Amino acid sequence: MPQQKKKTTIILFSGDYDKAMAAYIIANGAAAYDHDVTIFHTFWGLNALRKDAHIPIKKGFLEKMFAKMMPHGADRMGLSRMNFGGIGLKLMKHVMKKHNAMPLPQLIEMAKEQGVKLVACQMTVDLLGLKQEELLDGIEFAGVATYLADASEGNINLFI
Amino acid sequence: MPQQKKKTTIILFSGDYDKAMAAYIIANGAAAYDHDVTIFHTFWGLNALRKDAHIPIKKGFLEKMFAKMMPHGADRMGLSRMNFGGIGLKLMKHVMKKHNAMPLPQLIEMAKEQGVKLVACQMTVDLLGLKQEELLDGIEFAGVATYLADASEGNINLFI
Amino acid sequence: MPQQKKKTTIILFSGDYDKAMAAYIIANGAAAYDHDVTIFHTFWGLNALRKDAHIPIKKGFLEKMFAKMMPHGADRMGLSRMNFGGIGLKLMKHVMKKHNAMPLPQLIEMAKEQGVKLVACQMTVDLLGLKQEELLDGIEFAGVATYLADASEGNINLFI
Description:
The structure is a homotrimer. The first copy, chain A, contains 6 helices and 5 strands. By secondary structure, chain A is of the alpha/beta class. Chain A has a single domain (7-159), classed as DsrEFH-like (Hypothetical Protein Ychn, Chain: A, 3-Layer(aba) Sandwich), CATH 3.40.1260.10. A 5-stranded parallel beta sheet of chain A has the order 4-3-2-1-5, sandwiched between helices. In chain A, strand 3, helix 5 and strand 4 (140-142) form a beta-alpha-beta unit. In chain A, helix 1 (17-32) runs parallel beside helix 4 (104-113). The first copy, chain A, is globular and about 50 Å long. Chains in contact: A-B, A-C, B-C.
């Protein structure tokens, strides 16, 4: 009887560039070791899934406000520390290039190629006034029930 | 032989409204799927268990200071991002109402009704100068040993 | 056949004194209950492993900047909340003393004595421009593959 595949599930709650990097590095590593991997993006973590472009969509006033103030995509998120209005992240990206560490948008691309399941939490998508057209293609929309079904079989479950 | 119940344990360290919401939504979901669920509140997460009222208690000076500066209960916690002195949270609550998402105090009430075990970490209760009378009724007080006993049998263990 | 030892793995991403305290209290507790325990320090969590002294090392400009702005060791980290430029932490340490709670440097010392495996994430050590000489003796250097090997057998896996 073949051994069951290991499972890794990550809730990405944070909207910080460095925390999202950690999440995607773990996810890509686990996928490389043949785990079934899922990242559930909720609250500010949804920003990692936004397209890096202005998508014109009709929205209510509050939704427009939230959407406007949140970063448009992975590349525009900030560091959780020493961000200094973006300067810290610029320096970090510079150092990352020097050390051949992948920037976040590429880590996300790689995760998709490796078959990591990217999920957007439907409830918080609605709360933050995001629309499907604003988010990356190929992602799924689901809720806590789907998360629990995956995580309760998970070998590694993290909240980031 | 009946299958053992699944177990979910969450450490709620954060004092942010949105993170506490995430913790309680997962906890309530897991309880609905018949998991044994425990939330261990430690450090700033204890604020979610404070009563929404001023309880007159004799305390030392430092304890009074900490107690005064920390939010009195779940409804007075702030967002981890875009709080803007409370305006962000007000907008969020407004949107939540529109989308029929439960506010945090109701999520906590529901957790209690579903039999989620709410634990306050005794050590940090002492450090922050909180008294039992200030915290919600029906919660337990315990330490790291109790947490480890639960979590080492846990299917889903999260630190939030 | 003897039962296998339980395993606890913690990723310490945070550079906050209180979060690192939580990580080390759980780690020490788990070690006392005979778990195999590993703490993987990554990003700002590496500061907990820095020596509390200025170590003169030749570095590039960016690396010098990062290194300069990050706290030199566990005792110089700040609280995640109510730090107030260090005053909050001073008060917290004062209260901890009164309640016989161990300060972070002692918790780390105890972890080492109990055989908790302390790992520094090689990639982020490089990104933040840290050098081996600046970090505590007796720690290991490893990457995501080592983490995954440990965590996929872990009973308790946390991201802090």
